[in-house]
């Protein structure tokens, strides 16, 4: 599958990084499990190699996006497999939508709550736009 390059604005950095770190942790556990299965003769070496390759893909994305949360990052240019970038942006969008649900749960919102709702709405909109960019079919040569 061909690689895709996207520009990640600083405002979406932490949203994507949180999802990426979660996927990385899950895949690291999958590599450990595959290694244990291989050692116990319950799985093949190619199964372990496949898990390692997937972890390496996530590791490469982390190297590009950076590992640090809650800092004012510069815009990042990230290149990776379309399905991984889509999974990251979808996961971040899902979390932002959950945050929006929480922000509108106040029974009588005041000015601060309305501003907070606006921030989350802008976050949801930006992450949706990023997901659309990733899912847009590659343009074919004329």
Describe it for me?
With 142 residues, the chain is mainly alpha-helical. The protein has one domain. Helix content is 69%, strand content 8%. The protein contains four helices and two strands. The protein has helices at residues 10-39, 45-65, 82-103, 111-135; strands spanning 3-8, 76-81. The chain has a two-stranded antiparallel sheet. The longest helix is centred in the first third of the chain and has 30 residues, at 10-39.
Task: Indicate the topology.
Elements: E1 3-8, H1 10-39, H2 45-65, E2 76-81, H3 82-103, H4 111-135
Antiparallel strand pairs: 1-2
Helix pairs in contact: 1-2, 1-3, 3-4
Evaluate the radius of gyration: 18 Å
Low-pLDDT residue spans: none
Roughly how much helix do the residues carry, as a percent range? 55-70%
What proportion strand? 5-15%
Task: Identify the overall geometry.
Answer: elongated
Mean pLDDT: 91
Q: Please tally the helical runs, counting DSSP H or I stretches of 4 or more residues.
A: 4
Q: Got a strand count?
A: 2
Number of domain units: 1
Distance between the termini: 21 Å
What is the oligomeric state here?
single chain
Would you list the SSEs in sequence order as H and E?
EHHEHH
Quick overview of this protein structure:
The protein is built from 4 helices and 2 strands. It has helices at 10-39, 45-65, 82-103, 111-135; strands at residues 3-8, 76-81.
């Amino acid at each position: 599958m061909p690689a895709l390059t996207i520009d990640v604005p600083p405002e979406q950095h932490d949203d994507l990084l949180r999802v990426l770190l979660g996927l990385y942790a899950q895949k690291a556990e999958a590599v450990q499990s595959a290694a244990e299965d291989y050692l116990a003769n319950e799985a093949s070496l190619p199964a372990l190699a496949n898990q390692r390759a997937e972890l390496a893909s996530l590791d490469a994305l982390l190297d590009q996006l950076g590992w640090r949360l809650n800092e004012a990052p510069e815009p990042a240019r990230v290149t990776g497999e379309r399905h991984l970038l889509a999974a990251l942006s979808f996961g971040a969008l899902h979390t932002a939508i959950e945050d929006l649900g929480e922000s509108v749960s106040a029974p009588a919102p005041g000015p601060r709550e309305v501003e907070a709702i606006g921030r989350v709405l802008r976050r949801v909109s930006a992450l949706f736009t990023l997901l659309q960019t990733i899912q847009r079919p590659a343009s074919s040569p004329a």
